[in-house]
Sequence to fold (324 residues):
Amino acid sequence: MNAIVITAPGGPDVLRRQQVPTPEPAAHEVLIKVRAAGVNRPDVLLRQGKYGGSTDVAGLVPGLEVAGTVEKCGAAVSRWQPGDAVCALLAAGGYAEYAAVDARHCLPVPAGWTMTEAASLPETVFTVWHNVFQRGQLQSGETLLVHGGGSGIGITAIQLAHALGSPVLTTVGSAEKARACEQLGAARAINYKTEDFEAVARAAGGADVVLDMIGGAYTAKNLRLLKDDGRLVFINAMQGGPAEFNALDVMRRRLTISGSTLRPRSAEFKAALAAEVERHVWPLLAAGQFRPVIYRPFALADAAAAHQLLESSAHTGKLVLEVN
Fold:
């Protein structure tokens, strides 16, 4: 089958289309004929040899989320049948014509959604649900600040928090992105290039939960703008991990600092997370309270160009590779 392979750690040019063996599903897996695969920041980090300690990445097929039809079921699979339309979370292997996936990590393609749209869901929805609603414990009426509002994570966090009754503040890098985020439900989109996001957020009353993918100098600002008993949750550190902050202030205001990475978690954890996402998020999709935001689809062979665009942050929404 055709697949996009990381030939060595490096820039987008190390992604090459190659022929690789079609996987055979294990007893607990399904083989998906991939129609579309989402492109995400962890794919970039994996390609660079920087994700979760994965430095030996030569020969790996990236791709953490796909949508397609079930081609074959392992002997222990009972829920799915060949021909079922599913989207799924993977540890790797999505940039390919076929992918073998733990059957418990699959969810039905939402009614009315295209395969391209459905492929934009698993990685971002699983990540946001775990970090904002499980780790961050965001409650209806509490305020969420999410950085990078125009990213796949950002558009997901904005829509889910808004749908579940939370005001949302977000940071963006342009007036165009600000308008797009406010149309998705953000109460206020802050252009970090022209405004001090800390000052704006504090003037708005602060935030109960901050979802941060920036790190670095943002850390101290995030902690200062949190309300008492607030929660700061990291999912990336694009400005770097080291940061200085006032530990006494964290103690005095009972702040919580947390974070996670999804790919290294156990299959059992992901299965439980998938079940909770289906129970809480899929009804919002069916009700039209969450809509897909696809910036641009790419052909599978153009994965390197998709990575270049992703790293530029010039887009709003998800980038997706269309396969078969």
